[in-house]
Amino acid sequence: MSLAITVHGSNVRLAGTVDVQTAPALRAELTELINAAIQGTELRVDLGAVSLVDSSGLSALVGAHRLAEAKDTRLLLTDLPRHVARMLNITGLDELLYLA
Prior knowledge:
The chain is α/β, with parallel strands linked by helices. It has a single domain (about 5-100), classed as Transcription Regulator spoIIAA. It is built from 3 helices and 5 strands. A 5-stranded mixed sheet has the order 1-2-3-4-5, with helices on both faces. A hairpin with a 2-residue loop joins strand 1 (about 5-10) and strand 2 (about 10-20). The longest helix has 16 residues, at about 55-70. The protein is globular. The mean pLDDT is about 95.
């Protein structure tokens, strides 16, 4: 399984699977972006082309959210496919994470 991560400024586009194999790369990329962001910045993560998110992927997103909050940055998840939105709803993470 693979994950393509494309960064354009403060916009990140994900395509593929966010799972146990790809979550570490996503976590590293988001950490780097958040640490480099100016306070008050909004980082947008487009999940429109994500085919699967497992618990490791959710953990990476929650960890990035918490780091962003600590750095006064907003991590906004956009273009959620139905299966991702449903998973966030079932786990209650739709109440924690910023979704558009």
